[in-house]
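Below is how a single chain appears once it has passed through the pipeline. First comes the sequence as given, then the structure the pipeline wrote out for it. We keep one example in the README because the format questions we get most often are answered faster by looking than by reading.
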Amino acid sequence: MRSIRLLGAAATVGVLLSGGFAATANASSTVSAPCWLGNHRDVHLTARDNGRRLRVCRGAKIDAFLRAPLDAPLWTPIAITGGAVALDPHHPHILLPRGVTAGFFVAARRGTSELTSTRPACPPNPTGPTCHAIQAWRVDISVR
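Resulting structure:
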């Protein structure tokens, strides 16, 4: 009787460990590691990230590339609001393709910041009616 209990307990523990480990591994792959473990993942933003909220660790590099369609108005320079994100003093000095607005930032201190840019939604029409619609881009960043 004792050997059956031990065998049943061992089987139960084996099933729990294998299933529990797989569930834990899958769940942890979507959750970022704490900052004190050195999780300084770099972030690359595009116009598709509009409205996104990010959590990054101090020291993470953040670059944003906003591309305007050909013959369309360009994005304004990307602005920073808040004190958690700063311009990256060591950003790459690259020549950008025509129609691309870029910004290079670093998560400098704990807190929140917002990156924003705008562009006219319609191309200028010198001979006809004008369009006053504005396309906005915004990303909220929380630095921990």
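The longest strand covers residues 111-120.

See the next section for the split statistics.
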